[in-house]
Amino acid sequence: MIPTSTLQALPKGHIVRLANSKITRVSLQHLFSIGRHVAKTGNPLLTAQFLHQELPIRLTQALKIVNSSDVPECMSSLPKFQRISKHFLEDIAHLSRTPKPLCKSQEISFTELLRRLQQRQHVNNLLIGQVIEELSEATSQEINFHDKRLQGFFDRYFTMALGMRTLLGEHISLHERGHSLAEKVIPLDVARQATFDARRVCTKQYGFEAPEVEIISKNTSVTPLYIKEYLHRSLFEILKNSLRTTIETHKRSKHLPPVKIVIAAGGEDVTIKVSDVGGGIPMSKMNNLWCYTNSTPTNCNRSLRVPELDDHTSIPWSGFGCGLSLARLISRYFGGDLNVVSMEGYGTDSYLHLFRQQSFLENLPEYEETDFMFESEESVRTVAESRV
To answer: Kind of enzyme, top EC level (predicted)?
Structure first.
């Protein structure tokens, strides 16, 4: 349900036109090429103009997702969840009132608006976490967090959020640093940094030194085109999980067995395998790995603060239970995947695949026009009064 005043802030029919517009997907090659253009010209005006047109469409798609029938009523009726719809509409209104940037000064002003939208994304992600916490504590019998439709909602919501984060981060990076987020990355270097960060968080959580991580790279000269932050985030989540299970399985041992990483490059994929001897996972529990609410969110949610969300390594150890789900979602965004093979009683192998086809377009969800339905406060009151 969306506040009537927020709906009225947009021109009549404008939201419907946006809802019927198609998303323009981008590829890593597209981002990289634009980055080279901006590096030569020093002018990110073209990306600002693209975002002026594209962001309202993506925001409207996100609005359709949070107002879809996949969201259970006990979730959609929460004020914090309704604030997310309100934020999307307000952001669409801000963009609609802002003229298309045609010169450097207008591009600078528009970039300031994009920074505010980026911060709003952080707030929305925090709100989603708080909604999950409220539901877990108050209505655990009313909602099935393992329901496929609900998990599908989280998949679509977080994928669309990732798509908007990419465009916002890309332009701000071009504006501030003159280069694209898409770059030739060295997987070995990213794996080392993710290892350092995951071990640091693990050590802080448990109060003693985390297990060692051994890294084997079969081809150190491979430099796939990717977004370094996204590879780091995926590896960080996988490593964090492997380190945790290793500690909990071997906590009475004098020596903790190491976690092992193997990096290999083929013609189509770069694959990173993370192996642990953390006891493995029963077959009956494997599907739970991909549930966005796999563990109790209370500890994580209470300690999150909006400024910290950019640095995911500062997010506490326990939390929403969605680390592997997000890692898989990130990998699939540009055509890759995350697969987990486990042996109960021994350990787990996680295979992170990076697709090397640079022209692969973003893997984003889209709803058809008939799926776009949401209510205003006024329409809900009218219906309620008619039933009295």
So the answer is: transferase
